Give the backbone structure.
Amino acid sequence: MRAADKWKDYRLEDCTCSEKLEKWKDIVLIRPDPQVIWKTERHSSLWNNAHGHYHRSDKGGGQWDFRRKLPESWNICYDMEIGERLIFNIRPTGFKHTGLFPEQAVNWDYMGNLIRNSGRKISVLNLFAYTGGATLACSAAGAEVCHVDASKGMVAWARDNAAASGLSDNPIRWIVDDCEKFVAREIKRGRRYDAVIMDPPSYGRGPNQEVWKLEDCIYDLVKLCSQVLSDDPLFFLLNSYTTGLSPSVMSYILGETLIERFGGTVSADEIGLPVVSSGFVLPCGSTAVWHR
């Protein structure tokens, strides 16, 4: 497992009983996490002094209980291994999220190093790009980036993050669109990219509003996106938070789809966050990467 252990503005203080206690710079939040199935004692006094606590509802969803006054939004920084600083706007949303998955920092550093060390101009397609963590990391490393997400609000949030990070003038295309449809059109247009990043949701809806599960669709989605790669691609990164989709399965899919055509190697593992109170690492998803 790769742990995102280089944060200065974020700390996972403790986790137990399906909840995690986090410190986002000076703001303390308690949020649910289905991976936290253990029932250990609470080791931090911050459990009783959190600014906000997100409570799950038995009927689905949930709501925040804000115990202390906190700003509507605030910034946190991440210093990449390549020496660039990324700045993110954080704010609690109605779906427990804050606009950032801090465990992804390990992937930002990995991609940043690949791009910076490639010795050439790299074009990156970032699909299901959310608030732009990977977009900012690749752009800061010198890549041209096409950022695609179906949510207009998430793309606007990503643009705010880019502005805060001093990347507004960098070559980034901001696209609000269905990712699968966008890729199909890019293939027809003959547009190609040197790297593809995918972080698809566990569940979604098709063009006729039919519900689909990632496990059922991931192979076809990866196969489609492989067609938008250039003749000399650098990497293809696939991330997932879907419990039933193991790193080995994602690795197999990338290997079957890419190695015969491009050669290269595939690696896969879990990513996670170090827990201050225990010294262990909380698993937070899986990543598979094909690279030259």
Notes: The first strand starts at residue 2 and ends at 3. The mean pLDDT is 95. The CA atoms of residues 166 and 265 lie 34 Å apart.
